[in-house]
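Hi support team,

I submitted a single chain yesterday and got back a structure, but I'm not sure I'm reading the token output correctly. Could someone confirm the output below corresponds to the sequence I sent? I've pasted both exactly as they appear in my results page.

Thanks,
R.
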Amino acid sequence: MINFLLAIGCFLVAHLVPPIPAVRSRLIAVCGRRAYIFGNSSLSLALLVWIVVAVRQAPFIPLWDPAPWQAAVSIAAMPLALWFLLIGFSESNLLSISFRRRNPAIPLSSMVAITRHPVLWGFLIWAASHIAPNGDVVSLILFGGITALAAVGMPISDYRARRRLGYEQWQKIASPTSVLPFAAIISGRAKVAVTWKFLLLTGAAIVVYLWFLFFGHQRLIGINPLVWTGR
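Hi R., thanks for writing in. Yes, this is the structure output for that exact sequence:
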């Protein structure tokens, strides 16, 4: 349990300290933006691997009995989570997290029109949907913590974007978007431009989901998500 709590603590520090504007600016000035993104991403991946190993070694303390519907929650939610994550990381986003360089000359992408925080929503949906099928103390701490971190990250990202862009510029860019997915589209403030890139990334998200569902999850995590179906 100590190893797990230490891994979670390091993960939280790594995701709360570097994004602080003063710290982030200093790190980018020292090593460059690409090196900062690569280093930050590599550190996050390493910490996730550590967490997975620590979770598998931690004692199992059950909180509720397993039921088939619990696994169905994550299976149904993960296509949307992967869709948000893959396209969110791949498209430029002036307002939130992205692997692409923030370029004011690039118009709002289709995914940003759906929600200005697609990556955070992807993590939130992924984590929240894994709480029910993992009814133990360690899983509740892990997935509940990531869910809370992603939820808190949305207003924090808005605050940082307003500081970086200035309130008027931020308001101009953010007005045709929404935090809640699809809210701006439903209200008529935004439209989704379905481009070839958007369709290709959507297809890639489906392929990744199917691979994880039938092969990847069991190979990487050691758990078959379809076990409740008798497969």
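A quick pointer for reading it: The two ends are 32 Å apart (CA to CA). Let us know if anything else looks off.

Best,
Support desk
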